[in-house]
Each structure stands twice: as structure tokens, then as C-alpha cells.
Amino acid sequence: MVEIEKKDKILFIFMAAAILCSYLLLEDKTLLYLFLLIFLGYSFTSLYVSHHYGAQIKGWSSVIAERDYTSFLLTIPQAGIMGAMVITLYPGFYMPIPLIAGFILMIVGMGFNLVVRKELGKNWVPLSKTTPNQELVTDGLYSRVRHPFYLSILILFTGVAVISWNWYGLIFLMALVGGLIIRIKKEENNLIIKFGDEYQEYMEKTGMLIPKIT
């Protein structure tokens, strides 16, 4: 785990240096680089939290080896939404109200995601498949919804799409919603296979992404 953390640190330091160098070469792009640095800091913090609480972080080689191609259904739309934000912020064509509203949603999603990672601990799996030692988490946020992790991702990137305030952001956000649904369905099938009736009873008590009203 320590070796992986060192690699992550080197990667994030390199990315931060690249952002800083490009910022020095380009003028009047402060807002864009601020958002990029916030995302970089969030990405590093999220990995740190997952590592700290015992999760095993797997790279794209594991995704390909496990043939878990649903990861691409999430990553590609996320990259598209980020690109839509860059298209808006780079030339400075943003609108103040969507910018502020989107920023608030983005920060809420980031904070929510970090809390979920902490609650999942070693049970967080970056794949739709289960692991031999995985435990079913049903307390905390998971007592309200079955997939608060994906809900946090949706909130986060909805915020980014609002910041972009263009058709590209909306299209990729819709693609992300579709990808999340496909991913969740596949993941829940695997969870039913692993936990059986226990998970099916859990499904009856909790909503997928929105709490059930009782």
C-alpha cells in the first residue's frame, strides 16, 4: 500500500507542477486553474482517505484484466463534463449564477464522497465486482440509500455541468446518469450473488439513489 501511495504522490506532484507551469504561460485563466487545482486536491484527498481506511486502489490494468468495462461508462462522461467546463472557463464565457450554484454542488459532492469513502473503509471496491473479504455495509449513509457513493459522484458532476452551462455538459451528464444506472444494475447483481437474501431484503428497505419515504 505504501508503494502505491508514493506513486500517487509523484503523479499528483507532477500534475500540480504541469498546471502551475501552464498557468504561468497563460494569462487571465485564474478561474479555470483554480477549479483544476480543486479537482486535483480532491482526487489526491479521496485516494488518501480510501488508503487510510483500508481500501485497495486498483488501476486501469485491473479494470481491463477484470473486464469491468462499466468503468468506462463512468469515466468517459466525467471527462466529457470536465471538458465542457474547460470550454466555458477557458475563454471566460461563464455566467455568474450557474458558476456559483455549480461550484456549491461540486463542493458538496466532493465532501459527500469523502464521507462515503470513510464509511465504506476497506469495503470500497472501484469495480462492479465483489471481493472475497467484502462485507455488506448497511449503516450510516447506507441505511438511507444503497449507493451514496454514486450519488456523490452524480452531485459532483452535476455541479461541474452546471458550471459549464452548455449543451456538451448536459449531454455528457445524461450519459453519466445512464452509465451509473448500468453500473449499479451490474453491481447489484453481483451483490445479490454474494449476499443473497440479505441484500435483497436490504434493497426492499432502501432506495437506490434517493431515500425511500416510509
Q: Can you characterise this structure?
A:
By secondary structure, the protein is an all-alpha fold. It has one domain (2-205): Four Helix Bundle (Hemerythrin (Met), subunit A). Helix content is 71%, strand content 0%. It has eight helices and no strands. The chain has helices spanning 2-25, 30-52, 60-65, 70-89, 96-120, 148-164, 167-195, 197-205. The model is unreliable at 1-5 (pLDDT under 50).
The helix/strand class is mainly alpha
Q: Which descriptor suits the 3D outline?
A: globular
CATH architecture: Up-down Bundle
Strands, total number: 0
Content of β-strand: under 5%
Percent range of helical residues: over 70%
Terminal CA distance reads 43 Å
Low-confidence spans: pLDDT under 50, at least 5 residues? 1-5
Please count the helical segments. 8
H/E topology pattern: HHHHHHHH
User: Would you give the CATH topology?
Assistant: Four Helix Bundle (Hemerythrin (Met), subunit A)
The major β-sheet equals: none
Number of spatially distinct domains: 1
CATH class: Mainly Alpha
Radius of gyration: 18 Å
Features:
214 residues, Four Helix Bundle (Hemerythrin (Met), subunit A), globular, 8 helices, mainly alpha
Task: Compile the SSE list and pairings.
Layout: H1 2-25, H2 30-52, H3 60-65, H4 70-89, H5 96-120, H6 148-164, H7 167-195, H8 197-205
Short synopsis of the structure:
The chain contains eight helices and no strands. The chain is mainly alpha-helical and 214 residues long.
